[in-house]
Amino acid sequence: MAASSCQRPVSRFAPSPNGRLHLGHALSACLNFDRAKASDGRFLLRIEDIDQTRCTPALEQAIYDDLHWLGLSWEEPVRRQSEHFDAYHAALDSLIAQGLVYPSFMTRGAVKAWVKAWEAEHGKAWPCDPDGAPLYPPLDKARPDSERRTLIADGHRHAFRLDMEAASARLAVALTFTETGDGKTGVIVTDPARWGDAVLSRSDAPSSYHLSVVVDDAVQGVTHVVRGLDLFAATDLHRLLQFLLGLPEPLYHHHRLILGADGRKLSKSEGSTALGLLREEGASPSDIRALIGC
Q1: Residue 241: exposed, middle, or buried by beta-carbon count in 10 A (0-12, 13-18, 19+)?
Q2: Of 35, 92, 170, 202, which one is least surrounded by beta carbons within 10 A?
Q3: Is the four-CA dihedral 10, 80, 48, 69 of positive or negative sign?
Q4: For 30-82, what is the HEC assignment?
């Protein structure tokens, strides 16, 4: 069910503390904050720190410092994903109980080798997901349960993947979402199958971005998801997970991206656009808003 128009709007900005915020983050944060303020809504900050190897307390504090400097404020307490692994485990267990998840054992290298061999045999390209990664081969999904249990008992590292074919079979009609962003607008028909058997949990992380984001948005009562156009395609998978888990459907607004000199979207490795560096060089919050056009 989509968010009710009578409900007080709730938006959120959800960065990962694995690098310094840049101009692209500033655009997303300011858009969320401004839209919440204009609609008498609530603005939330979420720290997506599932990746414990790359996320650090110092980078998390830098996020707070940068956002405060921009003049943004948010409700407390801040939701930190590392404190809610149980919620993601529960969602994964629900999907496992529905028979929609299976353990996968192939490493990236093994997938790459399998795809290369398949393409050589068939003379055509193996399909990729919207992010450009090859769809996961069907080998693990075809394994008998007894073989899966043996591999796990023997200590083989594994991830859990969504069985896209089984999940899609649950849909009586195509899923949609309402989009008001800078690309396509209106009611968008999803195609989650293009993501293949997406990862939901890995041996080194208790949840994927896709699973945790839909759980967090539901728990926090987010009604309006405002994020970059680079995540537009991910909404297909998020809507499917919301449907399978019985979670509410937010409204979506995917905004334009801030591009670098090479025409690509900014990354956290782009030091020249880091908010902290711009501040040290004498930029003001109003300068940042002028740079991002917000």
Answers
A1: buried
A2: 170
A3: positive
A4: HHHHHHHHHCCCEEEEEECCCCCCCCCHHHHHHHHHHHHHCCCCCCCCCEEHH
Question: Cα(119)–Cα(243) distance, rounded to whole angstroms?
Answer: 34
Output the CA angle 24-30-34, nearest 5 degrees: 155
Dump pLDDT digits (tens) for 28-84: 999 999 999 999 999 999 999 998 888 999 999 999 999 999 999 999 999 999 999
Task: Judge: domain 85-257, CATH 3.40.50.620.
Answer: yes
Identical fold between 1-83+259-294 and 85-257: yes
What is the spatial distance between Cα 94 and Cα 98, in angstroms, rounded to a whole number? 6
What is the per-residue pLDDT for 194?
98
Residue type, 20: R
Token pair in block for residue 272: 């020249």
**Could you tell me which of 17, 42, 39 has the C-alpha nearest to residue 222?**
42
What residue type is assigned to position 172 of the chain? A
Given the structure tokens 């192939």, which residue do they identify? Answer: 106
List pLDDT tens digits, range 228-238: 999 999 999 99
Distance CA 20, CA 153 (A): 40
Range 1-83+259-294 has CATH code 1.20.272.10:
no
Sheet containing strand 10-13, strands side by side = 10-13, 42-47, 79-80
SS3 assignment, position 177? strand
If you average pLDDT over every residue of the chain, what do you get?
Answer: 94
Cβ neighbours, 10 Å, residue 71:
12
Nearest to 198 by CA among 164, 238, 234: 164
> Domain ranges in the chain?
1-83+259-294, 85-257
Mean pLDDT confidence for 142-158: 96
